[in-house]
Design a protein that fits this description.
The complex is a heterodimer of chains A (about 210) and B (about 725). Chain A is built from 9 helices and 5 strands, in the order βαβαβαβαβααααα. Chain A folds into 2 domains: about 130 residues, Rossmann fold (3-Layer(aba) Sandwich), CATH 3.40.50; about 55 residues, Orthogonal Bundle (Arc Repressor Mutant, subunit A). A 5-stranded parallel sheet of chain A has the order 2-1-3-4-5, sandwiched between helices. Chain A is of the alpha/beta class and about 210 residues long. The two termini of chain A are about 45 Å apart. In chain A, α1 links the parallel β1 and β2. Chain A is elongated and about 75 Å long. The two termini of chain B are about 80 Å apart. In chain B, β9 and β10 form a beta hairpin. In chain B, the strands form 3 sheets. In chain B, strands 2-1-5-4-3 form a 5-stranded antiparallel sheet, sandwiched between helices. Chain B folds into 4 domains: about 220 residues, no CATH class; about 120 residues; about 100 residues, PAS domain (Beta-Lactamase), CATH 3.30.450; about 240 residues, Histidine kinase-like ATPase, C-terminal domain (Heat Shock Protein 90, 2-Layer Sandwich). The longest helix of chain B has about 50 residues. Chain B has 23 helices and 12 strands. Chain B has about 725 residues and is α+β, with helices and mostly antiparallel strands. Classes of the chains: A alpha/beta (about 210), B alpha+beta (about 725). At the A-B interface, α1 of A face α19, α20 and α21 of B.
């Protein structure tokens, strides 16, 4: 499976600014997709493509904040806002809604490239976490209910003897289940198992269903 | 009538009665607005004004009544003295004419009192002479009727007091007082005499004698009493200078001549005709020099000796037949008195007319001399100055003596010779000039802005130009200052508006700057690569140049608006104005997410205007519209700017928003200075916009749209004759 590399989406209604930014990012080695209209961008947007969005705040009809709101419904997209006017209120709203950065035009390439690099990195990290999580959940789904019970107690830090007592079975049986859990979850150590449990939000320390 | 003519000292209590009496008497002629007589008696005035109350009025009537009574009695005595004794009727019968004079001098409502006052005098005088009581009463009736007829006729015919210095009044007096009164009353008198059977002679003989004796008395005594009462004793009091010498000499001479001719000389048929003329030079002298007052007095100086002489059998009239003598002396006196009275009236009238003319001329000269505006009179033929007034002298600093006889070009009055030529061209073309502005120069070389008005008139047969100059230097300076202040305020408002717009303008400038910077840095990246893409580089450079121009364009427009320059009117395309304005407002529109829609009519005629000021108006309206919308529905905010040709051929520009609209009661108020709904607004934007549009001869108004929002309309007159 070959996913496309990180792409920098640029959305600015000013064609000259759009061309200049596209060129700068392209010559800096980024994959760039430029859009002059928010509607065209939203229609063609594929959240699966990794990368970030360089988004102009002031646009007629749909402004940058509106685009950010629309994107939030589809999933995370790392956004760098660029504004022709330093407007604190807009900046605060953008950052609260999860923007990676807020740049005021005109900005130096180092600012833009730094922000874009950071955003791509953040996107990559987010995507990696999301990927790991999905793997953990997939593995979790393969557990039987008994194995699940054992898993919950193991990550909660209970000893095999205690788990056996909890479940009304023998320590030996628990050991077998535990080995199966470790195998199914792809964990080589207890620490790994606890981490994957933490990523999906299973609360450690308090086993459920006592 | 005369008595209540006391001007501001009018006794209040007299007024209603007087008005009633006057109206009744004169049959609708307004008697209360009699023109002020030139010669008013101080004696009468003091009488009329003496007591400003009811008892004052009464006491005045009584005084006059007493005077009438005494006068009537003495007049009767004089009449008896001048009677040819066998005849029952006097040659000169004064009481009736004295009564007539009294009636003429007093308000109508006094008349019954005066008639009553005459009655005891009549009784006293007549009873002495042994006349039967019936005849006494009959004569009283006929005597009073004579005075009443004369006075009533005169009051009806003449508005105001009887003036013996008016030819018309004297004519009226002769007709009414001397002719009609005595004629009519003599019918009654002769009839009564025949009825009672006291007198001798036939009816017509009696009538003739009665008529003539009363006519002579009316002719000689009534004018005397009236004129002397009117003028009063004041003239005598003040005349005790050398001026009394002339009338004094005249009267002495006249009296001496009259006495010599009529009362001393024995009847001698050989010399008499020439003697009649001896008093004539004196009478003419009086008529020409002394006015009606002196003339009437002079006549008396002839009448009394003539009649006295005739009655006493001396003088040129004595023929031995008393009746014929009486007739002769009466005819003689009538023939002398009538022309003398008329002559003196004419002379007096002429003198007064001449005085009035002189006074009017004097006033005209006074008006010219002391006019608050500089006036020059210039001869049309050679443009030399004939006269200038004081103001002209002070305005130009040129003494009158120096100005007269020279021309405006010799005096270097016009700064620009073209103004001088234009002025004389106007005069030639239209015969005058009205409010022509010109720069004039005084003797010190100071330039004054002036407004000239001139007319061509003929003075003494010479065509002249009368030029009135008005110095408007100060006025112009004030106007300029006001204009300058208005301009400063306009500029300040504009700058304040641009301040409000600064964020959006920064946005507009940052766009090209961003594009330029990104492109330049991209180019650096390209150049760092081993394989230089010259095609891309060319594109980049083209973009950089284009964006630089774009930034420059914004700055140029912005600087034009910031500049504080004098108003410069030129032909403007309104559609260009809209485009220019949107160029600057774009940032604001974008920041507020407002769509700007323009409907620009093609081929509009140009308007005459100041580009910056009109752009200010449009920018102001656009920003207000944006503000109205950001306060309202954020989605679908549309600003619509429309230009079109109005029905009357002017150009209309409308800026519509879709905000909440303007409350109906504020539609006019929004144009008032310091009216604002914004927290930080000065409230000057629309008021300045209104005054700018007004200065362009246009109109600015607001109305609410039928659906939502408001529209501001600007109508500007198109340049005439320029049609697409």
């Amino acid at each position: 499976m070959s996913l496309p590399g990180p792409t920098v989406f640029v959305l600015d209604d000013d064609p000259a600014v759009l061309r200049g930014l596209t060129r700068l990012l392209q010559t800096s080695g980024f994959e760039v997709r430029a859009f002059a209209s928010p509607r065209a961008f939203l229609e063609q947007h594929d959240p699966a493509i990794p990368g970030c969005l360089v988004l102009d705040v002031a646009m007629p009809a749909l402004n940058g904040l509106d685009v950010q709101k629309a994107l939030a419904a589809e999933g995370d997209r790392a956004i760098i806002f660029i504004a022709g006017q330093a407007d604190v209120a807009t900046g605060v709203r953008a950052m609260k809604a999860g923007a990676v950065d807020f740049l005021t035009k005109p900005f130096d390439e180092s600012q833009l490239l730094g922000a874009v690099t950071a955003a791509i990195e953040k996107d990559r990290a987010v995507r990696a976490v999301r990927e790991g999580l999905r793997a953990v959940q997939q593995r979790l789904a393969t557990l039987t209910s008994r194995e699940r019970e054992v898993f919950e107690r193991v990550v909660a830090g209970r000893l095999n003897k205690q788990i056996a007592a909890d479940l009304g079975t023998t320590e030996k049986t628990v050991k077998v289940h535990r080995a199966r859990v470790m195998q199914k979850m792809g964990a080589t150590s207890l620490a790994q198992l606890v981490r994957s449990a933490g990523s999906i939000g299973t609360e450690p320390g308090r086993p459920s269903g006592r | 009538m005369i008595f209540y003519k006391s001007g501001d000292q009018h006794p209040r209590s007299v007024q209603p009665e007087q008005a009633a009496g006057g109206t009744e008497m004169t049959n609708g002629v307004r008697t209360d607005t009699v023109p002020a007589g030139e010669s008013r008696s101080p004696a009468l005035r003091s009488l009329a004004a003496g007591g400003a109350g009811a008892e004052g009025f009464g006491s005045r009537v009584l005084i006059v009544a007493l005077l009438v009574c005494v006068g009537y009695y003495l007049g009767s005595m004089l009449g008896f003295a001048l009677t040819f004794h066998p005849r029952p009727i006097s040659t000169l019968w004064p009481p009736n004419s004295l009564l007539l004079a009294a009636l003429l001098l007093t308000p109508t409502r006094w008349w019954p009192v005066l008639i009553l006052a005459a009655f005891p005098a009549h009784l006293a005088a007549q009873v002495q002479s042994g006349v039967p009581i019936a005849m006494v009463l009959g004569w009283f009736v006929s005597n009073c009727s004579e005075a009443l007829i004369g006075a009533t006729c005169l009051r009806r015919l003449i508005v105001g007091p009887l003036q013996f210095d008016s030819f018309r009044h004297v004519g009226m007096f002769l007709a009414c007082g001397v002719l009609v009164g005595p004629v009519l009353s003599s019918f009654l008198d002769a009839g009564l005499v025949k009825l009672i059977g006291w007198g001798e002679g036939g009816y017509w003989q009696l009538w003739r004698m009665r008529f003539l004796s009363n006519a002579v008395a009316a002719l000689t005594l009534a004018p005397l009493v009236v004129t002397w009462t009117q003028v009063g004793l004041r003239s005598l009091r003040t005349a005790f200078t050398w001026r009394i010498v002339e009338p004094g000499l005249l009267f002495l001479g006249l009296l001496a001549a009259s006495v010599y001719v009529f009362a001393q000389t024995a009847a001698d048929p050989a010399t008499t005709p020439a003697l009649f003329y001896v008093p004539l030079p004196f009478l003419l002298w009086a008529a020409l020099r002394l006015g009606p007052q002196g003339s009437s007095a002079a006549l008396l100086a002839v009448v009394i000796p003539a009649i006295w002489g005739a009655v006493h059998g001396v003088g040129p009239f004595v023929t031995g037949h008393p009746e014929a003598d009486a007739l002769a002396v009466q005819f003689f006196l009538i023939a002398v008195a009538v022309p003398v009275l008329l002559l003196s009236a004419v002379v007096e009238e002429r003198r007064k007319a001449r005085e009035a003319l002189e006074a009017s001329e004097k006033r005209s000269v006074q008006i010219f001399r002391s006019s608050p505006y500089p006036i020059a009179i210039v001869r049309r033929t050679d443009n030399t100055i004939l006269d200038v007034n004081d103001r002209w002298e002070s305005m130009f600093g040129i003494p009158r003596a120096q100005a007269i006889g020279r021309t405006s070009s010799e005096l270097h009055i016009y700064v620009h010779d073209s103004d001088r030529r234009a002025f004389f061209d106007l005069l030639s073309a239209h015969g005058g000039a009205r409010d022509m502005e010109a720069d004039l120069c005084d003797s010190a070389g100071r330039v004054r802005r002036a407004v000239l008005s001139a007319d061509i008139v003929t003075i003494g047969g010479v065509p002249c130009i009368i030029t009135i100059t008005r110095d408007i230097t100060e006025q112009k300076r004030t106007e300029r200052e006001a204009e300058e202040q208005r301009r400063q305020l306009t500029h300040l408002t504009r700058v304040a508006m641009l301040g409000e717009l600064s964020g959006a303008l920064a946005h507009e400038l940052n766009q090209p700057l961003t594009a330029i910077l990104s492109n330049a840095q991209a180019a650096q990246h390209l150049l760092a690569a081993e394989q230089v893409d010259t095609g891309e580089l060319r594109e980049i450079l083209r973009d950089i140049a284009g964006e630089d121009r774009r930034a420059g364009e914004i700055i140029r427009r912005l600087r034009a608006l910031f500049k504080n320059e004098a108003t410069h009117f030129q032909a403007l395309d309104v559609n260009d104005l809209v485009k220019d304005t949107l160029y600057l407002a774009r940032g604001d529109l974008v920041t507020r997410s407002i769509d700007a829609v323009t409907h620009l009519a093609p081929g509009l005629p140009p308007v005459h205007g100041d580009r910056i000021q009109l752009q200010q108006v449009l920018l102001n309206l656009t920003m207000n519209a944006c503000e109205a919308m950001s306060a309202g529905d954020p989605n679908g905010s549309t600003l619509t700017i429309r230009t079109q040709l109005a029905a009357d051929g002017s150009v209309q520009l409308s800026v519509a928003d879709c905000g909440p609209g303007i409350p109906a009661e504020r539609l006019d108020k929004v144009f008032e200075a310091f009216f604002t709904t914004k927290r930080h607004g000065l409230g000057l934007g629309l008021s300045i916009s209104g005054s700018i549009v007004g200065a362009h001869g246009g109109r600015l108004w607001a109305e609410n749209n039928p659906d939502r929002g408001a529209t501001f309309h600007v109508v500007l007159p198109a340049i005439a004759g320029v049609r697409p």
